[in-house]
Amino acid sequence: MLDIGMILDNSFPPDPRVVNEAQVLIRAGHRVHLFCLDYTGGTQPQEEDYQGLHVIRHPASTQIRSISALAYTLPFYHNLLAPPIEAFIRKYSIQILHVHDMQVIPAVQKANRKTNLPLFIDLHENRPEIMKFYTHVNTLQGKLLIYPSAWKKAEFRQIKEADAVLVVTPEARDYYCEQVEVAKEKFVTLPNTVHADFYEDAQPLEDIEAMAQGKFNLLYLGETGFRRGIMTVLQSLPMLVDTIPNIQFVIVGKSVADATYKAFVKEKGLEAHVRFEGWQDVARFPSYILSSQICVSPIHRNIHHDTTYANKIFQYLSLGKPILVSDATAQANIALDHACGLVHRAEDAKEFADKVLQLYQNPDQRVEMGKRGQAFVRNSFTWLHTSQGLLQLYADWEEKINS
């Protein structure tokens, strides 16, 4: 049994990845203590048991949140957090440190100088790459103060220094192995998975079923920023409406980019073929999926998208729907390796339209793809299977520590 110290530089809950990892480790007999920040102004208890996870919250002001964006520009953020993290390590006799995301790693390293505990870093995403698209990073002030290149340099150094690195896809592992020149053995691939309660007993809701009735529905779930490829789908519709007059693109999600999309829809006279549903409760997602014929993830190509899964594709597949995805590497590999969907060139509306026509004209192909995808997700891509690497990592280190 180990005392594991997880570090999260955010409020908790929610963070499904933290909960999932903690629970599987707790079931294996370990104690898991979570140091997290409390941005709620003290409305949450400073210490509590959360589904078996021992949560310790450190009060954090809005100023700390503000300077967190400068974590690799100025040292203040890490200087503020290192002392309470060091106290957390000592108070709970932590034996292994498990840091979620890279923002707080220097503070943890500083806190760990005296104890020199094994350090695992858990990269939920490629932060230096995705932050290039953040609005605050692209303001004039952001460009002057926040440097993604500095974050990338730090990330590569941290990977070299860590005892183990957890990533969400094999593509992320391969990217870091090539870029940082470290052995694959340092990495554990731990993808996020769909919980069975998402798809078990899923039933269409009457209002969603009525909205979809009589239509050939393309569905997109999630945030709708420009890099998500929504415009690619909209641009394909004029090429499709003559052949598929009842085609309907259903968008469940929103962003500031929606105004641009709506203007395009109006300009092209596509109002009868596009529905902007806005944000919806996740409990309604299964109904949207069940009411669709094709589910899409047309995201643009970039290093982040190439090495990260859009969780929506597994939600789609879990309910037996074929997927049409861009050639962003990680999701394209899922579609091709498991023969559960088609792939189009990112930002290529003509090729997207061609793939829609292929699936429209071959309903049996859609059914077979849906069956294969559903079997893959429900039988192989479950937390029970994907968490085995995490369990083995901790079993190996428990043996080292106790030997």
- The shape, in one word, is globular
Mean pLDDT: 95
- Helix share bin: 40-55%
Strand count: 14
Given helix and strand content, the structural type is: alpha/beta
Q: C-alpha Rg, in Å?
A: 23 Å
The share of residues in extended strands comes to 15-25%
Alpha carbon gap, first and last residue: 13 Å
List the uncertain runs.
none
Number of helices: 20
- Specify the biggest β-sheet: 8 strands, mixed
Q: Which sequence of strands runs across the widest sheet? A: 3-4-2-1-5-6-7-8
Key features?
403 residues, alpha/beta, 8-stranded mixed β-sheet, 6-stranded parallel β-sheet, 20 helices, 46% helix, globular
Report on this model:
- The strands form two sheets. Strands 3-4-2-1-5-6-7-8 form an eight-stranded mixed β-sheet, sandwiched between helices. A six-stranded parallel β-sheet has the order 11-10-9-12-13-14, sandwiched between helices.
- The chain has helices at 16-27, 62-68, 76-91, 105-111, 127-130, 140-145, 148-161, 170-180, 196-199, 206-212, 230-240, 258-267, 285-290, 303-306, 312-318, 329-337, 349-361, 363-379, 383-386, 388-402; strands at residues 3-8, 31-38, 47-50, 53-59, 96-100, 119-122, 164-167, 187-189, 216-221, 247-252, 274-276, 294-297, 323-326, 341-344.
- It contains 20 helices and 14 strands.
- It is an alpha/beta fold.
- The chain is 46% helix and 17% strand.
- The model has no long low-confidence stretch (mean pLDDT 95).
